[in-house]
Amino acid sequence: MAAGAALLLRPLPAQQPEPPFGPGERLRYAIEWRLIPAGHAEMWIEADITPGFWKARARANSTGYVANLYKVDDEYTATFGRRSFCSVGIRKTIHEGDRHREVDIQFDPRRRLGLLRERDTNTTSPPRQEQFPIPECVHDILSAFHYVRSLPLAVGESFEFPLNDGGRTLSIRLEVQALEEVQTEAGTFEAYRVEPDVFSGQLFQQKGRMFVWFSNDEQRVPVQLRAQIGVGTIVATLTSVDREEVVP
Fold it and tell me: Cys staple from 95: which of 31, 73, 126, 234, with CB 3.0 to 4.6 Å?
């Protein structure tokens, strides 16, 4: 691994400046599947009760014709350091088709341990629990998204970061491929197209490719996401950005 990439695997130092985004930001998206309107999603950030930490929340729902085929109603909540983006844990409530699960992943950096607790709410079976080793700083799927927003993106650059979604910690490689114009309901953005290697045994088992476009400004707003997978292409495109001033 290159020296620069290795540095990115360490927690950010305490003197890192505050990110140019934070509590009070809410991003909304329209989702399409095979060019058919498929649902809505939103992400927002809140201050945690513990000073120096934030909560990132996300929600996704299928609608219309797609909801009749495959109902989706998912919610995620992650807690992480506001400067390091190192995760404390993530909770998921997942309702997808006939699958109904509650997943709680907690990270203990002092002991370098993670704990997974997963319950199938369709049954009365006891929850599955698992412990696993983690590095001192690890990202969950939500904190990683915001961590990338803090990076100095430039075409041709690549980064690596540790991500854990329960079990083995993965080293995710991110390539900054191009600077492109993206048209959305929220406006037209000049945005960096990045590709994280999350498929084919990394985060997802199936084959595919994922691209995310981050605005070329201080906020690095994720303006579009495109996942090319076996069931077709899924696209989430920004529809609105709200920012409320939050008193510390």
Answer: 73
